[in-house]
Amino acid sequence: MSAREFNFDGLVGPSHNYAGLSFGNVASFSNVKSASNPKLAALQGLAKMRALAARGFGQALLPPQDRPNFRLLRSIGFTGTDAEVLSKAAREAPVILACAYSASPMWTANAATVSPSADSADGRTHFTAANLNNKLHRAFEHEQSARALRAIFKDEKHFAVHDALPGTPAFGDEGAANHTRLCREHGSAGVELFVYGRSEFDAAAPAPRKYPARQTLEASQAVARLHGLSAERTVYVQQNPDVIDQGVFHNDVIAVGNANALFYHEQAFADEAGALDQLRRAMGAVGADLNAIRVDTAHVPVADAVASYLFNSQLLSKADGKMALVIPHECQEVGSVARYLENLVAGGGVVDELIHFDLRQSMRNGGGPACLRLRVALTDAEAAAMHQGVVMTEALYHTLVAWVEKHYRDRLEPADLADPQLAIEVHNALEELSRLLGLPGLYD
Ligand code: SUG
User: How far does residue 319's CA lie from ligand 1's centre (Å)?
Assistant: First the structure.
């Protein structure tokens, strides 16, 4: 069966701000409390979606989530009217108020793990919302993520959306950011590669010492079970704990795969040779040859990969069989990476084009092109069955740009989160958005 990959980018929400909430994510920590520009952030994201859609790539979006999260604030003892809740939280717990306001659902690579119908036992596309329980500001996203996914992928004949795994450290799950699918072509059975940072129950497995490992082996195995994946086409690989300690908080900061290609840093995995061996064996079962594109430390040190987000790129298959690498501007600014990329596209390999975007607003919180998108490979029948209002078109792009211009602020500082007017603005913006996307009731 033929299938096409859609990238569902997160539409940046109107409360995008820099709160330094993600310990282990270097960019988030270094930009804490600087002023953000939500309008520019949303426009940068929309420009990427528009350009990729115009190039013929499958492109859609996932809506932002309702903010602030009053349920969180009330559940921890802030009472009264909404305005009273906000002012008490701003006074007594400003960091938790920032958590309640975070626009982090924009990084939809963390919304869910997705297995296309070609891989699952029941022939449906499976989604498991990620519990993101390592970080307070992200631990509630799964409720609205599951809801949005169910609204878009409603047809149970084709789609199954699973609730998040239990929100406890043993099942720490960060979704597609730690999951890569390798295959001959998108519509044929593939190999699903789960990369985990630690194991809850294997005391012998190495673990990072400085920063948290957000994904557990147990969570990855649970997702594979829920999706009905076959054991011989599922591979579990441990991420190198040393690179987690250097700021590689998700596997998609050090590796990206597409079709039969795996673009990765030599230090990405705890056991590189073992990982490649397992992958080659599993891919043999689906008639695919692994194209391993290894980046050596001598060419690009881990620190440069983290600073540039080289691997947080999108690797997209083009009609001519070649691939384009979608990178952030920062890749041109880090010398080793710029030189590496020049050689890569000139080298005659499968990657023959670079497409770059200015995503600085998101990058300052540690979110590059690949963080901003959730991949879903769909057959024609499945693509026709999903909600069409989120598919990116020129018309939707212009509608959303006008919506952003109307509702978004161009400057947000930490103190602004105490302003009750901001909550009203966000609410009004999202109310209108649900109508524009044809998803009434999304925020009820
Ligand atoms: O979870 N940053 C996000 C970035 C997620 C990137 N996603 C992928 N690699 N797929 C995170 O660390 C920062 C929010 C703040 O500090 O205000 C934040 O949540």
Answer: 32
Distance separating alpha carbons of residues 150 and 299, to the nearest angstrom: 44
Length of the chain: 444
Give the pLDDT means over successive 10-residue stretches in the chain (444 positions): 95 97 92 94 98 98 98 98 97 98 98 98 98 98 98 98 98 98 96 98 91 98 98 98 97 98 98 98 96 98 98 97 98 98 97 98 97 98 98 98 98 96 98 97 92
Q: Determine whether the shortest distance from the Cβ of 19 to ligand 1 is under 6 A.
A: yes
Question: Which single residue is written with the structure tokens 């999108």?
Answer: 314
Ligand-binding site membership of 28 (annotated): yes
What tokens appear for 297 in the block? 């430390």
What distance in angstroms lies between residue 104's CA and the mean position of ligand 1's atoms?
Answer: 6
Class of 4-67+102-436 in CATH: alpha beta
21 a known binding residue? yes
pLDDT in tens, 194-225: 999 999 999 888 999 999 999 999 999 999 99
Is 183 a residue of the active site?
A: no
Q: In a 3-state reduction of DSSP, which class is residue 176?
A: helix
CA distance 171 to 283: 27
Structure confidence by residue, pLDDT tens digits, 167-198: 999 999 999 999 999 999 999 999 999 999 99
Atom index in ligand 1 nearest the CA of residue 365 equals 13
Q: Please name which of 231, 223, 211 lies closest in space to residue 175, comparing C-alpha atoms.
A: 223
Domain boundaries, the chain: 4-67+102-436
